[in-house]
Queue: 3 jobs
Job 1
Amino acid sequence: MKATISAALAATTALMTTPGVLANGTAWARYDSGAISGLGARNIGSATMSGRVSAVSAVREKNGKVTIYVGAASGGVWKSTDNGTTFKPVFDKQPVQSIGAIAIDPSHHDTVWVGTGESWMRNSVSVGNGIYKTTDGGETWQYMGLPQSEHVAKIAIDPRDGNTAYACVPGKLWSDSPDRGLYKTMDGGRSWSLVLKGGNLSTGCSGLSLDPMNPNVLFAAMWDFRRKGWTFRSGGASPTAKSDSGLFRSADGGRTWIEVTPAANKGFPAKPYGRIAVTIAPSNPKIVYAFVESTHSALFRSDDGGKTWAQRDNSQNMVWRPFYFANLIVDPTNPDRVFKPDLTLIQSTDGGRTFSQVGGGAHGDFHDVWIDPTDPKYVIAGDDGGLWYSHDGGNKWWKANNLPISQFYHVSVDNDDPYHVYGGLQDNSDWVGDSEYPGGITNSRWENMFGGDGFWMFADPSDKSYLYAESQGGFLARINRHTHQMQLIQPQAGYKEKLRFNWNTPVALSPHDPDALYIGAQFLFHSSDHGKTWQRISPDLTTNNPEEQKQEESGGVTVDNSYAEMHDTIYSISESPKQAGLIWVGTDDGNLQVTRDGGKIWDNVVGNVHGVPAHSWVSWVQSSPFDAGTAYVAFDRHTYGDEHPYIYKTTDYGKSWIALVTPANNKGIRGFVHVVKPDILDPQLLFAGTEFGLWISPDDGGHWAQYKGGDFPDVPVRDLVVQPRTSDLVVATHGRGIWIIDDITPLRHLTAAVLDTDVAFLPARPAVQRIEAFGGWAEGDASFTGPNPPDGAVITYYQKSRHLFGKLKLDIYDSDGKLIDSLPGNVRRGIARVTWSMHVAPPRVPPAAAIAGNSAQGPRVVPDVYTIKLVSGDKAYEQKLDVALDPRDPFTLADRKAQFAAAMKISGLFERMTDLDYQIVAVRDGARVRAAKAGNDAALRKRLDALADKADAIRKQIVATKEGGAITGEEREREHLDEVYGAINGYEGAPTGYQLARVDVIARELDDTAKAFGALRAVDLNDVNAALKAKSLPEITVPDRSPAGAGGMQGAGMFRDRDAFFEHD
Amino acid sequence: MHARMVVFTALLGFALAAHAVTAEDLIAKNIAARGGADKLAAIHTLKLQGQMIFGGSFKLAYTQWLKRPGKLREEARLQGLAQVQAWNGHQGWSIQPFGGRRDPIPMSADEAKALAEEADFDGSWVDAKAKGNVVTYLGTEDVDGTNAYKLQVKLKDGNTLVVYLDPDAYLPIREIARRTVNGAPEVTQTDYGDYQQVDGVYFPFAISSGPKGSTPDNRMQISIASAEANVPVADAVFAFPATVAAEQGGEP
């Protein structure tokens, strides 16, 4: 067998060290998602900041519970069946995660329609691909079409017929499209007809309301809108420019429509319009509310089903940013009670005449509200900070702390142990969190450090007390992480100058100077003193197109000039780790600039990139950590309506570019690219984050596979970073928080040759015995906790196919060749991982009234080199495993060995105790069995009973025997030994002198007990056996030892003949 | 081709592929793959022995007895104490001895359903109609890199199982159970592997189970070391015990 193992190992090693052996055109044929996703991934959240909720729908069930569906802006659909105590993501297997609308069939609550693609059309909005439906409460979903819709604002279901539904589709944000308007299906979604279309290719449906009492009556709001990289319009290009927005009414189920106009409908405002929200009061369909964006934006109300209208509220929170907040929710039991989501939530109780701010302590930037028709005081609302519950009609709010739908833009890590994760989020500031913490990464392990929308964030590499954090428009600060005192360090404009900082302004640290950092406006700024002073080290690196700098005119009907439309800006910065002063800069208007002398000379090399249209947004440029002349660039053209991936590479400082991923050859990558980065150790390993997930290439961009490990969904990946000490890949998703793929070392060794082998070990980072510690506290079930890394040595191997037949196990041998553990294998295809806890078998402990809890686990092995034997059917493979101490341990290896030796000494003591107990029980029970058979021999029975009682009395010095499950306080030698075992095993440094002394004391006590039993054997047992012998009865024998399995996890020996009792008919 | 059109086409392709097979075909292939209906029916009792690991490092000896029709008992033993769960065909019960009590306690009807389902070692999809179960083919789905056939079994007891069959071997590789316990949903994922024959019938010797979404370290893993078919097993083994001593070997 040994020879077989060695041969297999040699073959594996040979294959692993000759990566080119199969590196031909088909060598990577086995490289796919299944091959790599077994690395796993863990979501560390957080849910404390949560993220934007774009749609909320709920229903009170017959059993009184409330079923809630939450649509995340870019984090899928979450369902709760317990009123929000727990949520499960139910949409994760779908190819898009942006949610615009959710509708529950009122007559069949397990039928739910989801319109993908959020309709709150901010600059960072994600996209969908149509309509989905479940008929089993979200367990399975059917795709129901409208693939070009991209965004869905509302879905309405005919209460008379669940197969009839309407989908209100605004359509594409960034480009013309005929696939927009109001769609209707009458066959459950199998086919759709466009029943209301806009007057041009930029007008779609933004609002929809159906009369629940006469579902043939419905109102639809049409919206003319368009976003470009540098401008946005809701309505026409200016407040008074022509717009095709309008409000329409149908009384025949959408066959014909009549526009609501001021001429025909008294009181309705004059055109042009921007976005309109409309809703019919469910309890009185004659009452209709419409928020209309116009030069005099306001709420309007009709009391006659839409024939005539009257203006109502026009306060700031009614009219503010209609593209983001055009929604109205009327109490289903009270037509005069209306919610309008906005910067804060406002509520009217007088039919819209007046509104009060009721957002209370919620985050703000509300989008949707659900009111319980059976208890209208119960309100659920979604905003940019997540989900909120009110039980007082919408005044005070509980926060949902169990929705990890946070939308990170960027991520970085420090080198602490455990390292921290830093990042900024959409409307949720900049946070620092733990990558690992005893008890798990709870919400409280994240700390907010800044404000606004968060973007780049770094630990200051030269001073651990400080960090850098950024909000929108390059608002950069250096912050004391202990006091939170901040100093704003954004570079300032010169005389009559305007600096153009992007919404997502790039900030970069220098890999050569821990005091230095860069920030980009249209110029590149460099500071070598933590932002105290700045030097401009470039001219304007953008196209500086005046037509793209008219942000003060942006907004359409309602001016909206945040930094979101700032354009002709630097968007990506990367200084070469290999050459100081070699800096790459990408701009949002399509320039790709490089300097090799710290900014004296800049070269715009974008013209050398072939196949990318001019002015394409450079979403990411990344210099190689391996070669000064090498860099990667990604272009994101979704702002031109082109959602294809573009990734290029240069090896000659940008003179020429290799197309790695293009629309014509996307290599399986789906969606526009946000980030492309090489690994920090393996130049062949590339990572790309797109709007629809994470892709990994093993051969420098030749082949790609989507990473789906740990149920990682098809969520936007905006940034990623490899932690250098741990080799963890830390991924910033825009919608599902931070995910960590622990230790990507195996990916660095997943060659084409390995992929073609049946089974092969893959190298991993050194196995460290992380400190085993307790932390956290009970938080109930309504709080998110991110998992820690696996607690043990992670063994990684590759299997060409899923293991199905025969045994798959990992046997662990110590350096003496002794088998110390055996683990079940991981059967999955591709990379597979198994965690070895590194604990030896627990002591054998004599049975007693209850379990000896501390002794249920053996001590951890001492650091050493161990041998792993992977047994797969009739084949075996070997690999060495080097186990080390945790560098944080405050003790030496010698201390650690002393602790292990002490624990094993106690194990030996338990062993003695188990044997002794077994012998005593043999005498006790042997006597009792014989006593029961003594018949009329009263004298013999009395002697046997006396012997049994004496044996039992001795045994009761060893083990606690009071049953009943109460706290008996009964402690005997076994319980005392378990206690000191727990104390020694719980800390892996050298045991204390008093602990060792305690072990010796218990050993003496056990000796005394053994002597007592010895005396019993020598006198009482001998006498009884003599009497038995005299009567030709079988003597009582005492076994030398307990059976091998007794007392440990086997326990079989303690059941004696019980199994025989079981197994008969 | 537009990115989303690719998706749509892929979904269309999936839909077409889904029509190529039926639940009946898959059930027949599963039965054949396991060894055939006759061999399966010839197994009246089954005794499985091995070990159970939970929390990554706690190991217990494990034994399971199964007996037709629909009886099950499983034990996890540590330090001479046996934690027992059993279903006698009508009632579920357990013994939880580790805290000091060794008297049997009845299970709630909801909790016992999982045992009753497990007791059907033919598989709930075999003779489904006679059992009152409804099987639906749901297409294929990726299971850790394997594109598995997906069968939904709506059980007579109100719970739902989704069984994923290996596309080549037609043996279950994963099962998602959706159960309602005390009015609350519980979703459990169980992965199967290490199939070995027992009297000509394949049974999984590796079983990994836990709440759906739990990390591998938090799942319960059962490794079967030996299996015997048609071992005589008394019905009393599954019945609510009359005495404690026989269940726990008379200790202490």
Job 2
Amino acid sequence: MARREWSSATNAGRVVGLLFAVLLLLALSGCGERAWNAPHPTREANSNTLFSSFSERPKHLDPARSYAANEYAFIAQIYEPPLQYHFLKRPYQLVPLAAGQVPVPQLIDRAGNPLPADAPADQVAFSDYEIRIKPDMRYQPHPALAKDADGAYRYHRLTEEQLQGVNILADFPETGTREATAEDFIYQIKRLANPRLHSPIASIMGEYIVGFNEFGRELVDAGGNGDFIDLRQYRMAGVTQLDRYRFKVRLRGKYPQFVYWLAMTFFAPMPWEADLFYSQPGMDKRNINLNWYPIGTGPFMLAENNPNLRMVLSRNPNFHGEAYPTEGEPEDGENGMLDDAGKPLPLIDKAVYSLEKEVIPRWNKFLQGYYDTSGVSSDSFDQAVRFGTGGEANLTQEMQERNIQLATAVETSIFYLGFNMADPVIGGDSEENRYLRQAISIAVNFEEYISIFLNGRGVVAHGPLPVGIFGSRQSSDQSPEGINPVVYDMENGRPRRKSLQEARALMAKAGYPNGKSAKTGRPLVLNYESASAGPDSKAQLNWMRKQLNQLGIQLVIRATDYNRFQEKLRKGTGQLFMFGWNADYPDPENFLFLLYGPNGKVEHAGENAVNYDNPEFNALFDRMKNMENSPQRQQIIDRMVDILRHDAPWIWGFYPKSFSLYHDWYGNVKPNLMANNTLKYKRVDPGTRNANQQSWNPPIVWPLNLLLLLLLASTVPAVLVYRRHERSAAR
Amino acid sequence: MIAYIIRRVLYAIPILIGINILTFVLFFVVNSPDDMARMNLGMKRVTPEAVESWKAERGYDKPLLYNAARQGTAQLTDTIFFQKSLKLFQFEFGVSDSDRDIGYDISQRMWPSLAIAVPVLLVGLLVNITYALLIAFFRATYIDTWSVVLCVVMMSISGLFYIIGGQYLVSKLLHLVPISGYDTGFAAIKFLILPVLIGVVGGIGAGTRWYRTLFLEEINRDYVRTARAKGLSETVVLFRHVLKNAMIPILTGVVVVLPLLFMGSLITESFFGIPGLGSYTIDAINRQDFAIVRAMVFLGSVLYIIGLLLTDISYTLVDPRVRLS
């Protein structure tokens, strides 16, 4: 009896072992000749497909709502606005995309008479932008455009019964297409004004597009309780269709920056059919809506939309065609960036983006060759990059052995330390407080900050305008205008941070000798608002405390969550804080408006987080913002920057520098910080990729065999002990 | 028994209301509807009008728990709490703050969670019980001593260490399975091997020690001594008598966690890129998506109550002496 029990237990173990072996075989059978740890299916890996990752689920893919970089990574490949940035040329240059050419505004005075292009802004009542779009641009195959034999839309009157079994867009068997027309561009502008959609640019467009706000109010009055509103039935005064391929947008006054907005997906065409299709009952319940299933005319379409796992872009079969640029910067030819000149775009068939929330798996997959490109996190920075004696970034030996390439670019962003100008101690226009801000500006050493906390990935800022933005003057220009004279002295043609003695002298002039109030003798205590309270930020906060302590200032860290931090900014209750801005478009107006008085956060709920308000600066801004780039504009910007440096409402901080790595089979990589639609230019070589993946990832099984052997060997003494136990007398 | 079950279900209602109130209060102590609106509308160019409009559309423009502006019962019913919580009891989870249907997302994401949780539970049970039986067999020997030491060491190590160490060893060094990712159908197996292996190994320490305790408690009982006195071999004693009687606490311990398998594992899913309910919950907390947080807490509570109820019922099934009344 006992033997039978033991035997049945052993048999059960064998069955389980066999099952496990079968499962393992099944799992690895799909691998074929590919490495065992390959995460991508063989067919995809062998095809002309790019593999990359995303770390956060996009919130919106609706072009009227999307305004985040992680969303643009997808929709900018799908939707085509009238304009785009040239892929290779610098400084950034607008070129046509859906439009035939870059529109030149017709300026009009109050009497309705045309004005010359250089007319002063105060004479301009309206600017008319006439946009002619390219013919034969067709939408991707989409069920919203599917028609039956009679020409009626196939899926525009769906019932709940018809929707049974439909879970994703691909469950609709039929698709259709049609040509994008001027009406679709107008339809999308109307969508921007629809209050239901909460477009992030509705407020700014409302300031300029004639009839925009009135249109929004009309829609509110129309109600609809979430039902489809056919926007074609409502008229927006400032937007007119001229013919099938032409439309006109009338703006109030002069707004040269409007063309930059035309390069964003906010202005891409939207067929009314899609709006109607997605607004049918039962669609939202299945998460089938414009937020998750785009419809565009671009080179790619969203073939698989699983934001919890992976997003797949595949070639749009109806793409109207575009060629790789034939011109670029002088060095582009030498760098091979023009090897594909004139070739039809896109150069790849598919792009697979996998969700990778954690840094470690993402980095390892890149090193294994399963992602074609990767950023460099702080954790892996030392493994990937080392700095040479001249401060230049080089790849480590390990990266070089794998032919990994490095691309760096100074971002069109700025991080700054802001002084709340509404605060009586640190802000305001008094000479004493100005000295105080200047002293702190000298003491907070951002060169050190960049070195310690950013692994050198940043450039110290001397003003608000990052590299590549018109009007920006950098310390590397070797010109006096590139140096902030409040914080730096020029020494041997290079900027040198002023000494702490000079900062202390300014403190004394501010009424705080040695950091103590000359009136009361009490130490100066300032509050630093921080949105990060975790252990990771402790070192940074301590560093900040140390910087101000050099002047005898006691810094109180008020760490809180991001919501409370934002609230303090809105209410103006903070004193010092770190903040940043990423460019919407490459124009100085997009940075200088951050310090424009009427944009103050406390009084006007604007983006001027420090509530700086200088009448001279405001007046210069009003002049500068409507000017075309010219020496006169540069002159005004120089004066504005001088005012800012003197008043020191910000410690100018740094412009972050992006580092990205890519494998040698991934081509046409040139950082373009303004363009989001660069996927169409990218090239991959699947053959080289597969060969490298094979050679880098050979399965190593001997430790498994060893483990098995050890387990087997350990059973021998166990069996012996068991036998001895069974033979021994009862105790 | 039916009366007992009905009574337990009725008891569950005030518990769920209490949990809802607690979740609601905790969430809104940290986040205000304004914060939620700003989080959803983005960081740039958010106007106060847009914030108000967002709140009004989603019903977050009402008072939280008490509406002094209304009369009668509307003072309680015309509040965010009442409006948002009542439908949960009908299992209508509504729409997330990013406009996705929560019920649909849950129905999609529970399968990947189960794909990890079920094998980890079953394989873990098999491994832990086998190892515990082995230790019990070699009780009071060096195998027992060192196994207990090993178990204590294993249960003292953070789960995160197992994950990172496992990924490093199995995927990065040995190149045996993908380091992370997921797929559907049979293609999912190669992605599940490592998280399941790590889940099982990570649970050996605590599991084996618990089962060892149960087995040793049984081994010292009179009926075991009687069985041995009858001349039965140790194997038969262990498998036929000790294991069978120890199954009562094992089974009830397993039944209570069964419903919670749906909820997924927060860290494992995040590190392995598994699109389950664990990562769904973490994402919602990070995004301050109250609709999802509330739904997941409610669902977790309901499943836990079901688990406890099933435990009670399973007692009656495995031990005829137990009667529910």
Job 3
Amino acid sequence: MTASIAHRSKAQFAGVHAARWAEPVVMEMTYPGRRGVVFDDAPAPALPEGAMRKAAPVLPEMTEHDALRHYLHLSQMTLGMMGVSLFGTCTMKYNPRLGERAALQHLSHIHPLQHPDTLQGILELYANFNDFLCEVSGMDQFVFQAGGGADAAYTHACVTRAYHAARGELAQRDQIITTIQTHPCSPATANAAGFEVITLSLEEGGYPSLEQLKSVIGPRTAALMVNNPDDMGIYNPDIKEWVRLVHEAGGLCFYDHANFNGVMTRLRARELGFDACMYMLHKTFGAPKGGGGPAVGAYGCAEHLVPFLPSPLVVRDGERFTLDDDRPQSIGKVREFWGNAPQVLKAYVWARAMGAEGLREAADISVLANNYMDLRLGQVRGVSRSNPDVTAPRMEMTRHSVDQVTQDTGCTVVDISNRMTDFGIDALWLSHEPWLVAEPFTPEAGELWSREDIDYWIDVLEHVVTEAYETPELVKSAPHNAPIHQLKGADMADPDTWATTWRAYRRKHADRLAAE
Amino acid sequence: MTRAHPWMATSAPSAKQEMLSALGLSTVDSLFSQIPDDHLYGKPFDLPPQLASEVVLSRHLDDLMRRNVTCRDSLCFLGAGAWPHYVPAICDEVANRYEWQTSVFGSPTSDHGRNQAWFEFCSQIGALVEMDFVGLPVYSWGCAAGHAVRMASRMTGRRRVLIPAVMDPERLSVLRNYCEPREMARHIEIVEVAVGPDGCIDRADLAAKLDHTVAALYFETPGYHGVIEGDPGALCAMARKVGAEAITGVDPLSLGLLEAPGAYGATIAVGPTQPLGVHMNAGGGVGGFIASPDTVRYATEYNTLNISIGETVQAGEYGFGLTLFHQSSYGSREEGKDWTGNSVYLWALANAAYMSAMGPEGFAEIGRLIMARCRHAAEAIDGIKGCSVDLSRPVFKEFVVHFETARVAEVNAGLRAKGIFGGKDVSKEPGTDGQAALFCVTEAHTEGDIATLVTALKEVLA
């Protein structure tokens, strides 16, 4: 086995090069009169003058084949998980093809407003998966309406409003507490929902102290929104006491289970005292990320919050399933309809294929693999670990730093990440803002990747760090084997030159384009 | 586990042992030492049995899903936020690419192709609405409207939005959540503007309610009931005159035929992306776009991630990277604009492929076809005894059918028995009088389908 690992690393070091198609922007790929799709023609309707379009939209005119070929070229110039991606905080998993096929076959042609009698299969799947997540979390009810993890955090902020409003305390309870290591979506959605955000800072041990929490809770506390373990792999051992204190002050407690992978089957949110929690089906439960959705933030809560959940809820009535919209205390909708059903189906596929023993195995492997990485990364020149005082093994990911390499060579973690993509390693996850560790990176192996993959990833890092010390310019000017070269960047930050559309680009760069 | 799982390389028994040995351990338990004992859940989990065999799991799914009746098994005339449009085969092929499905944040160089496709999504939406700034998509049309209203409130410093009294309750419910309840300091008041008997915004009522406290007028064309506003530019001008933003919700599929919001003076355009090559997916196909002029005033209020074209260090080469990232919640936490996160970016790739295949002529053609089919269906249904459709209204894709005596629930039950999903029951909603249903007719419906519907309606109503 060792031999094959070496063989693989060697081959990949020598041979990786991304596809490079020099593909024009699609707006340029136009020839007057060409068509990619045609319809039966019909006469122009009589419309008021003010409603009629005067100038045709400036879209490309191309054949179906050209459109397909163009987008396939673009897909080939996307690394995704075609190499090795240990993108931390996102829990890179295999996205089972069975789920893709089944979703396309069975759900494409379903309308969300169909009569429930015609939705019995998908509603049963929702109900079954709800039961699965309730058992895993200890919660009483899940909803899948939120279109991502941040949307589930927003759901919680809305539920928090409704809960306190129902008790006549909303005007008084205007603060939500979070920690600096909690995902930015918690403070952002709390703020968007109208709350003042209080952010606790890290202290000894890598988490805020009980004293800091006590100093901010009180009659204005509406909720606590927190993750655990955090993105540095540190578990807050006081979390049960935190929940007790916030409850005592009258606030709700929301557990962002973004980092659930390492603790699956070992703890349950409800038993820790939380009122609500959230799982990201596109992370922990094997649905694809799609570069940023469609996603699902599965939001679950205990009985006392169920009346406030968004509508509709899937209700099991013996063998029959219905959608309950008649819920007067519900917050209504955070997004139209009842969720990204294909993603729920894919997550259900993953969950059923794993079962209880698979979840435990996956959690074990993800923590084991991370600690294996920690061991090897500790031996790489210039790489250090966050919170060196925390000697206990980290959970499923660890924050590391190449600050020493940067100080010695001038090569930043972004340079190193760019150079690693030359070897088929997807760009590193660095850290959420604010960076608490200089030049950070946060790999997460999860349960998918083999030791060979992990070793290769570390071999590449080691190689690039060596390059940084020996030939820093090679690293700073990376990537060299990618579809394109490094972006200059400054033009994309300047209002006079940035352009999010081809129209804006043509207008802002008209002089230069005319000269060419 | 005694047998390796197909999705876990290290579940091969010796592989796990190798890793443990490297750490000098015999079991994993000590790796969890950070978790206090009294946090651990000691009981066994009551979960259904593992189905690791793909053949077994696939069969299980088939058995479950067989209990659905799809819009392929039946003829679907439901719309109202998710519409039965035709999805060209290339859209499925593009959206199902493993590279795109498995990509995550990435970088402008390693995920260059995806970033370019994102830019092409924004560029083509920009071409349809004739606006220069387009953000990456948000969760849905309702969410896009919500963010646009919040943008307007921040830009104007005002806390009131006018909306049509006839609006999709589904979308309105989302908007209400974005406007915050009265108890909150930044509550945005939602004020309804009357909709006239022609289905359009009542100008007199609008004039009476528009003043310098209004952050935005939000209206839709076509509206919830499919009605096309005759002079959307005049509505926008009225809003702009009092310093309010003019936000329009538009169906992108109508924009080969109907005037672009940017051309008639809307300052922000929003709308759904599902019609652009994405399946209904039981509602999981929805997405929303936000567009505006490209000025600092607007650009710096976007909550979305935004992708800009830019130069690389190689002369003549361009790439695509994030711009204005710092104003997102990723960049500034609660100081950012609303929030962002995973959205519907994979659908944006299907949308991009769809729009390039369509081109200007495709959009014009589909617009004419949808209007013609819709008109044909409306006239035919209006001719059925017991049904009436207001044929004086120019409509796109959807129209209201009133039933004189029958109840919609019973009509739809009768239709369902004949393999037809009738229109959404809108009987208790604003803008209808008595029993009414919202029917949707698209390019995917043939004249034969409409004839089938008419025959079935006659039988059900007989």
